[in-house]
Structure formats: structure tokens, C-alpha cells
Amino acid sequence: MKLIKAYIRQDMFETVHRALNKEGYTSMTVMEAEGMGSYSDPEKRHGSLKFPTLHSKVVKLEMVSEAEHVDAIVDIIQEHASTGHEGDGLMVVLPVERSIRVRDGEQRTYSV
Predict the structure, then answer these.
(1) What's the rounded Cα separation, in Å, for the pair 65 and 43?
(2) pLDDT at 1 over 60
(3) Exposed, middle or buried by CB within 10 Å (0-12, 13-18, 19+), for 76?
(4) Residue 27: helix, strand or coil by DSSP?
(5) Domain ranges, residue 51
(6) Domain CATH code at residue 92
(7) Quick one: how many helices (H) and strands (E) in the chain?
């Protein structure tokens, strides 16, 4: 199992979400976030009341997937989130060692 984290432009999320759903990838967690760094789009940065420096508003998308689906998911996000400009975002893929279902405590262990 793998954890995919994608930080993408807010205005690209709906397109990414539709493309993932179309291919059957429907389970995800989505959060609004503010990012900063060399990937920030200088034309879309803004001041924030919570954070005094300039940030770009982003969507953080998280998905846990079987390893054999990771490349397809990453490719879909890449294709549908890219504008070709700075600030398009970043994706990371991390190993998942164990999952625990909150409802009943059922655990699964995965080889890393």
C-alpha cells in the first residue's frame, strides 16, 4: 500500500477529481491549504491573516492505494493538474506499513 499526497492548484481540483472518479479512484481526503516555497505562483500569491508571509492557496489531496495503482493515479493527477507554469504543485508517494479501521480496530500490515 502507498499513500499519495498531491498539492495542486485550487482551480484544478475539480478536473482532477472528475478524472480520478472516471477511472474508479473515488476514495480520497481533500483539504484546503496554503503553500509557500519555490513552487508558489508569483501571480497568485496572497497575504493571509493566519500566516503573514505570501502563500498560494492549494488543495491537498490524499489517497491510500494498492501499489499497482499508484502510477495510474499519479499520471491522472499530473495530466489534469498541470498548467505548465510554476505553482502547479507537488506529489509525493510514501509507503504504508499498517492500517487500522477505527470502527472495529481491524488491522492490516503491508510489506514496505
Answers:
(1) 34
(2) yes
(3) middle
(4) coil
(5) 2-109
(6) 3.30.70.120
(7) 2, 6
Residue range 25-47: mean pLDDT, rounded: 75
> Between these two residues, 43 and 96, which has the higher pLDDT value?
96
Q: Give the pLDDT score at 59.
A: 96
CB 99 within 8 A of CB 1: yes
Question: Is the predicted pLDDT of residue 111 greater than 60, yes or no?
Answer: yes
Q: How far apart are CA 35 and CA 95, in angstroms?
A: 23
**Number of structural domains in the chain:** 1
Share of residues in the chain with pLDDT > 90 (%) = 73
Single-letter amino acid code for the residue at 97: E
**DSSP strand E in the chain: where?**
2-9, 29-35, 56-65, 89-95, 98-100, 107-109
